[in-house]
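Class prep. Protein, please:
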Amino acid sequence: MTRNQKIGLIILGGAVYVAYSSGLLQSGIESVQAGLMGWQTVNEGPVWIPVINESENAYGIPTNLLARQAFQESHFRSSIINGTQASPAGALGILQLEPQYFSTVKVPIPFTESDVVNQITQAAQEMQRLYGVYGDWGLALAAYNDGEGNVNSYLNGSRQLPQETIDYVTGILADVPLPSNFATQLA
């Protein structure tokens, strides 16, 4: 088995997580902790959730929606938050922003606390924008995860959403229940 080889999937609370050889034990511990004590307690969650909640409040995002996204994206792991561990797609930071679209991750790594705050703000602005486009938090989450063009193709019937995106939306909204016509359609 090579270092950081994809070895399977972990299903927790309806959400599907990719398991990598180097992170399997860590993922298992995080899953148990999240299940027993709540996702807010995992790793650096207690440090960053209050900061994220401030951005949610400033941008009209329901409480804990962006925070739960941050958990989904980074599991509040310091190596992901500080940018030293990128996603397979090259996304960086606490909310896994792609450098080609988000300026706040185009800074030296490791990220400083100020960099992370700027990334949280930029992600909050993006979620506010996506909600303005779709008028539905479920669709905004889907667009954040899979891209606005892909969601538009789904809405016009020319494409199906990947299971990863469906699991992303349903997993987040299971923990932060909000009215969503889109999420209701997925159920």
